[in-house]
Specification:
CATH topology of the largest domain: Glutamine Phosphoribosylpyrophosphate, subunit 1, domain 1
Helix content: 40-55%
Strand order of the largest sheet: 2-3-1-9-8-10
Number of strands: 17
Strand content: 15-25%
Shape: globular
Structural class: alpha+beta
CATH superfamily of the largest domain: Aminohydrolase, N-terminal nucleophile (Ntn) domain
Largest sheet: 6 strands, antiparallel
């Protein structure tokens, strides 16, 4: 695992300070690779490649980068891990290569020299962001793994091409200006993150997952896909599982065990995150099933019981006999981290579960260098609560042949407080917590007749057109895969799963995990996001994903073999923090300072009255606008750190 960066200057640019600039880019990525760093420079061609190393496989100097192929044609820097490197190395036995070490970096390079770039990439199992310079053809290639596990930004600005694992690398090398991309800003306000293909900066882009960018000159760059979720869906439909349900579950277990076991290979200590939920428990159970010693597991807990999963994790760890470490954090521990978030996430990022993700990464790094995580199970196997909610809303809207808008407006005629009191009168109703707020949030969705449009509304925080008015960008960003889902007539849940896999999983979940873990120099591996698992998931019948109101049905059947179902069958809580309460309490002053930031209104064109209305309703307890207010506050925090 590493951080990579580089610059390729135009013919007219002065290359005398090229090495210094890329060294600065490298230094900005030190946290991604504290075990070493180097820069390769070809001053005549005006190109330099840099890398910061977190040594995981082959800790010797033979694994250092930038690395040259044995034939001298290619120079490469790379961030990631390739889990089938030993098999690929065996296939090159007839090439009579004199190997310098046993790093996967060297295997990738020699495969490219032997088979070519595209054929090599298609053979890789793993996570990767690659920058490859072809010295013979004078071309630069940038490659991102199929599902976007590892990040890679690139830029074209002021007479050069730049690339880096994080935007702060581009900024450090003056590879971009600090001009804001209005489309990226609108996308952030809608989704809470900036999707791949864009950046918050006008002259930078995040390379899309599953794509190769071929740069022939400073005026010619071609981006092509080598893998896509759409193809995985189509292949899954064409080769749908034809056997019985149990054989499908058994095949999935075998595949997951292989994905887990491949990710347990390292020359450094290794462990796993354990929340006690289905995904992380399945990963740990499979790890323990192939390990001859107790697996090291880690969890964090909160004093607030509504957000505390540590007790569940402890029960699972005890049952599986892992070597378990847990840390209970106080609100102060978590709140002290808030000012560091904009440094860690150098684009605005709203997901408040970045806080516990950072904390568990910091805890884990004290004991190991690599950790396996359960991320990705929800998207592939139907685990999100919103899949059930959206399905129910769709059915409810469809059952109202006329006047669904009228019903929607009628539901909001009563205030949230009145709904809370009314529902509280129902005999046997145990809890009415925020039921009125939930009704007010769900009611507008009933008025939307189109399922895909309802999905957009469900995942949107703001309508940028309303929040920014005339300042909003004319370019509207729609979720990748929307047209595909419509054209293929996928059922509603499958459509949501596909679109979540293409954007939410990549740009929220994986971004959160990558930045939080790498800020602590920890490598996180994600078995559920093995492309083979994703492809197999699309072959499964829908009933093995969401069975009635039960999500992740197939995964549950696998996990029940290792952990008693009473430890697992409980409501999904998620990995979050009591954000609404914090903004009304210990973060009230912090939020007020950020909402008073004039740049929000003068530079970004936000509607001050709309934001003040949200703040007032939230503070009074009338509505829960915690996510929306946090989104604006984090935008302000980012602006103060990176633009001011």
């Amino acid at each position: 695992m590493c951080g990579i960066a580089g610059l390729w200057l135009s013919e007219q640019a002065d290359a005398t300070r090229l090495g210094d600039r890329v060294s600065r880019m490298n230094d900005a990525l030190y946290h991604r690779g504290p075990d070493g760093g180097d820069v390769w420079l070809d001053e005549q061609e005006g190109i330099a490649l840099g890398q910061r190393r977190l040594a995981i496989i082959d800790l010797s100097d033979a694994g250092k980068q930038p690395m040259h192929s044995s034939n001298g044609r290619y120079v490469m820097v790379y961030n990631g891990e390739i889990y089938n490197a030993p098999e690929l190395r065996e296939k090159l036995a007839s090439a009579n290569i004199t190997w310098r070490g046993h790093s996967d970096t060297e295997v990738i390079l020699e495969c490219i020299a032997h088979w070519g770039l595209r054929d090599t990439i298609k053979r890789l199992i793993g996570m990767f962001a690659i920058a490859l310079w072809d010295r013979q053809k004078k071309k630069l290639f940038l490659v991102r793994d199929r599902l976007g596990i590892k990040p890679l930004y690139w830029s074209r600005y002021d007479g050069h091409i730049g690339f880096a694992s994080e935007v702060k690398g581009l900024l450090a090398g003056d590879a971009i200006s600090r001009e804001v991309n209005q489309t990226g800003l609108d996308a952030y306000l809608r989704f809470g993150y900036v999707p791949s293909g864009l950046s918050i900066y006008a002259h930078a882009k995040m390379l899309k997952p599953g794509h190769i960018l071929e740069i022939s000159s400073h005026d010619q760059a071609t981006e092509n896909a080598y893998w896509s979720v759409e193809d995985a869906v189509l292949n899954g439909q064409t080769h749908a599982w034809s056997g019985d349900d149990q054989s499908a579950i058994d095949a999935l277990e075998d595949l997951l065990r292989d994905a887990v076991q491949r990710r347990m290979v390292a020359d450094v200590p290794l462990g796993a995150f354990l929340s006690g939920g289905i995904d992380s428990s399945t990963v740990v159970a499979l790890m323990q099933s192939v390990s001859d010693r107790p697996v090291k597991t880690f969890s964090v807990g909160f004093e607030d019981e509504a957000f505390n999963e540590a007790a569940f994790a402890g029960e699972v760890a005890k049952h599986l006999k892992t070597d378990h470490t847990e840390l209970y954090v106080t609100p102060k521990d978590a709140l002290d981290l808030v000012p560091k978030l904009s440094e860690t996430y150098d684009e605005p990022f709203f997901d408040s579960s970045a806080i516990p993700t950072y904390l568990i990464s910091a805890l884990t790094r004290k004991h190991v260098t690599v950790a396996l995580s359960g991320d990705g199970g929800d998207e592939t196997f139907g685990g999100y609560n919103r899949y059930l909610w959206a399905k129910q809303l769709s059915a409810a809207a469809g059952s109202i042949p006329f006047g669904s808008g009228l019903v929607s407006r009628g539901l909001t005629m009563l205030s949230p407080d009145h709904w809370d009191k009314l529902v509280g009168l129902i005999p046997g109703k145990k809890s009415t917590s925020a039921i009125g707020d939930k009704i007010h949030k769900a009611a507008p969705l009933l008025a939307i007749r189109d399922d895909i449009d309802r999905y957009h509304a469900l995942i949107s925080l703001f309508d940028p057109d309303k929040l920014r008015g005339k300042h909003a960008s004319s370019k509207k960003f729609r979720v990748p895969g929307e047209k595909f889902c419509r054209n293929r007539h996928l059922d509603y849940v499958s459509s949501m799963q596909a679109m979540d896999t293409m954007m939410y999983m990549v740009d929220d979940v994986l971004t959160k995990v990558d930045r939080a873990s790498m800020a602590n120099s920890l490598e996180v591996r994600v078995p559920f996001i093995d492309h083979r698992v994703i492809e197999f998931g699309w072959r499964l019948p829908a009933r093995l994903k969401m069975n009635g109101s039960v999500g992740k049905y197939a995964l549950r059947q696998i996990l029940y073999k290792y952990v008693p179902r009473e430890m697992i069958d409980r409501p999904k809580t998620g990995f979050g923090v009591p954000l609404a309460q914090w903004l009304r309490g210990p973060l009230h002053e912090w939020m007020g300072d950020h909402l008073a930031n004039e740049a929000l209104y003068t530079d970004f064109g936000l509607d001050r009255r709309q934001i003040e209305k949200l703040r007032s309703e939230h503070m009074s307890g009338k509505r829960n606008w915690g996510h929306q207010l946090w989104t604006i506050a984090m935008l302000s925090d980012w602006q103060k750190r990176w633009l001011a």
